[in-house]
Predict the structure.
Amino acid sequence: MREPLRNAVASGQPSPMRELALRAAAGDAAATGELVRAVAPRIVTAVRLVVGSNHPDLDDAVQQALIAFVQALPAYRGDCEPAGYARVIAVRTAVTVRKRARLHASRHDASGEEEELVGAEPSPREALTTARTKELWRDLLTELPSEQAETLALRVVVGCSLDEIARETGVPLNTVRSRMRLAKERLRSRIEADPALLEALEVHR
Amino acid sequence: MTVVDLHPEDLLDKEIRGELTDGERVRLETHLSKCHVCRLEHDARALFTAERDDALPVEYSSKLIAVALGAALPPEAPPMPAEEEPRRPSARRVRRARRHPIWYVAAAALLTVGAAVASEDGAAWLAHAVGLEPTVSDRHPEAPPDHTPRPITMASASLERAEPTAPIAPTPLVSAPASTASVTAASLAPVRGPQTLFDDANDARRHGDFARATTLLRELQTKFPQSR
């Protein structure tokens, strides 16, 4: 049963997963277990993308996202695919964890994030640059309001289309566009005010 | 800098799907040459592509899934022995629960899930799952049957009200399952605020004490639902 469900998640077939999710939402413990195992890869992947593979709070974030998904199941109404529902919860949790970690680091050690990057395993220069750029992106997400951060993370980090974001977050497409526009405006202001950031992100072409 | 206000996100999606027409490609490239943020978005989506496709470490995810399910799902409740001793000292219940961490996890999870689904149906489901219906073992053997419905949410409410003052002398809660309540109260004795709860939960998990981690995380989410 688990393999077909994983395949269903991968192929986007709606019915079996939605039925399973609705049973889980109604309190069916067996369905909940089956559903969580089926969507867990998506949750883990989304959290890892947003938090970062080497982030010390990755395990915590994944665990919180899994629990948050189970807790959110009673609110599931079958309006979207449960895998997408799970992914949105995962991204939301991951952004929150990342924000909290950044806040914590800024309170305790202003150079903490830099140390984290420097302390990563030795990498070729290009890989290190890529890793730094990703970290900058993840940090930029934490500076946005939650809804904008969530939308931008789904868009840029997870790689969703606008339609997918609208479906999975359950908001109108125009709202997604609006959130993207606002997020981009904030990013533009932030980047243009920081030449070092502009340089690091290599956007001055 | 001249920036087009209408960012062509649709064209970026089309580009990824390989559906751009020649005209659309020109439009997109023109925009990207002028708009730093769209260029940034375009490049960043490409940047994360490889990481999106990384294979999931099975063992890693399995472990975390197991912990999450342990925290959120009820185990199959075994039948409660009717001839069990009527009352036990709370400390003994604590020790017994610690010898069987799975019950510790399950009980804490069920209580907090109970708070989350504190509806009539949810309460009934939880009551059935964890065996919280009044049993002989909960009453004095000679006492008359208690026909008063016992709201399942009382357990969660009592748990929420339990102030984490240290040290706590576990006091049996009359209407709550004593073993669960006293175990939780004892284990959460030093916990104060959300940050402490979060840190303690992480420490417990890192040390392999998944039961305590689960309990603390649940406590955090129950007591401080707005804490992020």
User: Anything to note?
Assistant: Residues 82-108 of chain A form the longest helix (27 residues). DSSP finds eleven helices and no strands in chain A. Chain A touches chain B through 55 residues (CB under 8 Å). The radius of gyration of chain A is 18 Å.
